[in-house]
Amino acid sequence: MIKYIVGVAFLVAGAGVASAETFSRDVRANRSSIVNRHVYYDGQLCSSGPIAQVKLKKQPKHGTVKIVRSVWTPKKGKCKGKKFKGVDIIYTPKRGYRGVEEFSTRYSMPRYTQGSAVNYFSDKYKVQVK
């Protein structure tokens, strides 16, 4: 079973420049875990935003990372029950490994939902495998 640890990003029209964020997560040994989820939507209109184009920038040394398309459904709020497409970052440690792991991703997406400009971001992950 995959343990869900979610970092949900929200679409803000006109916002965004190149930026980086560091995520610290604890995950269980010998199991796959979602360490981040990119889902962009307008919370007022309940409309979908663009799907981020995510790539692995730096490989983990003690495991693997999968980047997969996903669907997320809010459990509360105005958009409760509506489905939004996104991307999950899933980390799987090598069997028996316990300790600290690091990797990073880069992603791009249109600046505006109809837009021509593209923003580039990168995220760093510090994962504690327990």
**Silhouette:** globular
The helix/strand order is: EEEEEEEEEE
Stretches where pLDDT is under 50 for at least 5 consecutive residues are 1-17
Alpha-beta classification: mainly beta
Strand content: over 45%
Approximate helicity band: under 10%
What's the overall average pLDDT, rounded? 84
The total count of helices amounts to: 0
The span between the termini is 16 Å
Work out the radius of gyration.
15 Å
Task: Tell me what you see in this structure.
This protein is mainly beta and 130 residues long. The protein has no helices and ten strands. The strands form three sheets. The protein has a four-stranded mixed sheet, with no helix packed on it. Strand 9 (99-110) and strand 10 (118-129) form a beta hairpin. The chain is globular. Residues 1-17 have low confidence and may be disordered.
Quick overview:
It is built from no helices and ten strands. It is mainly beta and 130 residues long.
Primary descriptors:
four-stranded mixed sheet; disordered N terminus; mainly beta; 0% helix
What's the topology here?
Layout: E1 3-4, E2 19-27, E3 33-39, E4 41-42, E5 47-48, E6 53-58, E7 63-72, E8 84-93, E9 99-110, E10 118-129
Parallel strand pairs: 1-3, 2-10
Antiparallel strand pairs: 3-8, 4-5, 6-9, 7-8, 9-10
